[in-house]
Amino acid sequence: MMGIKIIATGSYLPSKVVTNDDLSKIVDTSDEWIVKRTGIRTRHYLGEGETHQTMAEAAAKQALERANIDRSKIAACIVTTLGGDYITPTCACMLQAALELEENTACFDMNSACAGFPYGLKLAQGLVTKERPYALVVSCEALSRLTDFTDRSTCVLFGDGAGAVVVEGSEDTPDICAILGSRSNQPVLYIDGSTEEGPSYIHMEGQAVFKFAVDIIPRCIQWILDQAGKTVEDLDWLVMHQANERIIDHAVKKMQMPPEKAFKNIAKYGNMSSACIPIALNDLYEAGQLRSGMRVLCVGFGGGLTWGGCLIEIGGIS
Ligand code: ACO
Asked: Which residues are within 8 A (CB) of 124 and not within 5 positions of it... i.e. 6 or more apart?
């Protein structure tokens, strides 16, 4: 059994920065309401010349340059996303050429909504081999394309961005102890598939999703810790999906953790679905706060409803 470590991170935030005051010009909202109820102050949207693909490529290239590995030893490139520029080819398939990956690399997109990143890591762990021990997990979301800018209860929440990690598998590395789950509940959070009715938008009953999140997250964290034989004291960081600052604070309180161990960047970027966790990891790296040997517990939750988390070590970062 091979476990994996994160050996490099990367991210890309698109150029257009939108403040709460900007949104209050198009819907009946205010900076005060958004900050108090969510913790969000700004978010990034795709700007001129930027697409889902350009974001994914930029984040992946940054992670690969930092990893400085032999690309022929990459077994898989997994993109987690609610949807890229095309239904086919997938974003991951287009990354094969852009990143100069060998053709015998498994490249595919997967959708577990906001829980996508831990799902992607678990798949990556299963795909690396002794001969080809590396995998790339890229989480890329263009939520501004799925946002109904007439609905104040959702349009203030979301942003665009991409995060990427390079992982390395080895028999000496512990299993990431991933816990992945799902509970069918389409009405509380959904995005229509292709229809003739018009654009597909995110529809969400915020309170119902909030209740789901505060119930499942502490349980998910505890299941992962139990499986790994660790306690919250063994964690260097808790990196959660950044959907609402109050959800993160609730989890920290419930787990009786020091609040400074729970990383937050929701104020700058809002909810970027599966991209939140790897972007947070890259923010930590760029702040000099992610070092080899650290243990990070990641937890995502969202549409489906889905949830997932894992405990992953950092390697190769001095
Ligand atoms: N500005 C001002 N007022 C607003 C806004 C706004 N942007 N949005 C809603 N309101 C109003 C409502 O109309 C309501 O008014 P009323 O009391 O007169 O009826 C009041 O504010 C309270 O609304 P609630 O929906 O009860 O507000 P709540 O405190 O629940 O916050 C929020 C809403 C932020 C959406 C919260 O429920 C939440 O974060 N839910 C979880 C979201 C989440 O975790 N999503 C994860 C997955 S996302 C994905 O998968 C893409």
From this structure: 4, 76, 78, 135, 136, 137, 167
241: annotated active-site residue: yes
Active site residue 250: no
Its pTM stands at 0.98
Which residue, judged by its Cα, is nearest atom 26 of ligand 1?
207
How far apart CA 318 and CA 312 sit, in angstroms, is 17
pLDDT confidence band for 318 (50 / 70 / 90)? low
Q: Tell me what percent of the residues of the chain surpass a pLDDT of 90.
A: 97
Active site residue 114: yes
Contacts of 79 (CB under 8 A, 6+ apart): 56, 90, 91, 92, 95, 108, 109, 110, 120, 138, 139, 140
pLDDT tens-digit map of 50-101 = 999 999 999 999 999 999 999 999 999 999 999 999 999 999 999 999 999 9
CA angle 74, 60, 111 (to 5 degrees): 85
**Pick the catalytic residue: 20, 241, 265, 276?**
241
CA distance 305 to 311: 21
**Considering only CA atoms, which of 274, 293, 297, 285 is closest in space to residue 10?**
285
- Tokens linked to 294: 């650290």
- Candidates 242, 21, 32, 29; CA nearest to 152 is 29
Task: Report which of 62, 41, 120 is spatially closest to residue 306, judged by C-alpha positions.
Answer: 120
CA distance 314 to 173: 10
CA distance 166 to 263: 20
CA–centroid distance, 56 to ligand 1, in Å, is 29
